[in-house]
Amino acid sequence: MASLCEVHCDRSASDTSMGWTRNKRAVGEGFPDLEYMPKDRSGWDCTLASLAYALRLAVDRRPPDLSAWAWAHGVPASARNAELGDSALVLWHGTSAVRAEKIRLHGLAHKGGVWTTTNPVISHSFCRSRSNRFDLPGAVVCIVVDKGPLEEGRHYSREGNGDVYRFHASVPPELVEYILTPDRIAFTGSARARDPSPLPQARFKRRGGEWIPVQNAPQFYPAGQTYSKVGEYCRLCLGQLFTRWQSLSALEIFSCLYSCVQPGEALTHEDLFGLLEDACASARKQGRWLMFGPGALRPE
C-alpha cells in the first residue's frame, strides 16, 4: 500500500460539491469509505457525515447512537432522541440543499408518500442523484420519529430490505433534527440534550505559515489540556474519539475532524492522512473496511 499521504493525490477531476466524481485513487488504495471524498486538498462535504453514521451501522451491526454521532461532529445532541430512548426511530432522507431548506420550514411531503431510510447509504445516493440531476448542492436530512404509536400498513410501509420507510402522510418539520449540507451540519431540533456536550469546535487563522487559534494560544481543551496549533487540536479530538470507539474508519475520522475545524483550509487531506499514519495504530481490515486503533497520539 502506498503512503497514506499519497492516497488523495489523484487530482484528475476537480473538487466540487456537485458532480460526485468517485475518488478512484482512495478506493484503489483500500479506502472504499472515502469513495466520494472530494479531491481538493482541503475540500469536504458535510453530507458525508451521514455515511459515517452508516459505516458505524455496518461495523457494529446495530443502530448507532445518534447522540454519539452528534457529539463526535461537534453539534448538539437531540433532546427528542434522548427522551424517546428505545422508542426513537432515526431516519434519513436525501435531497438537494434548496429543498432541504423547505423541509426545515414545512416538513416532508409528497403526493406518493414520503420515503426515508434507516441506512444513510441509501439516502446519500438520493442526495447525489438530486445534486447531479439539478446541478445543485446536495443535502441529507435526519429525522427522529416516535415509533411507539406507529402501525405498519396504516402509517407507513417498509420497502427494500426493510430499511426503507415510506410514510403515507407528511412528516412535520418539528421531527427534523439535523440538516447536512456541503458546508455545515445544522441542528434544527426544538431542544438540545444536556448530555453529551459536543466536541469543542475550534477556529484558526494563518500566521507565519502555520494555523494557530484565532484567540490567544494556548487554548484550553476539556480535561485541562491545551493546544496552540491545529495539529495539536486534532490529536486531542482524536484521543476523545478513541475513548468512545476502540476503532475508527478513515471516513469517521475525516468527518469528525473536518466538522470541528474552521476554516476548511486549516486542515487538509494530507494533514489527516499524516495523522492516521503518525498517531494511529496500524489499520486492520474489518469486513471491507480499514479500521484504525489508537496509537501514541503524541504531541507534535
Question: In short, what is this structure?
Answer:
The protein is an alpha+beta fold. The chain is built from nine helices and 15 strands. Helix 2 (49-60) packs antiparallel against helix 8.
If you had to describe this structure to a student in words, what would you say it looks like?
By secondary structure, the protein is α+β, with helices and mostly antiparallel strands. It has two domains: 4-63 and 197-292, no CATH class; 78-187, ADP-ribosylation fold, CATH 3.20.170.30. Helix content is 31%, strand content 22%. The protein contains nine helices and 15 strands. The strands form five sheets. A four-stranded antiparallel beta sheet has the order 1-3-6-7. Strands 2-5-4 form a three-stranded antiparallel beta sheet. A three-stranded mixed beta sheet has the order 9-8-13.
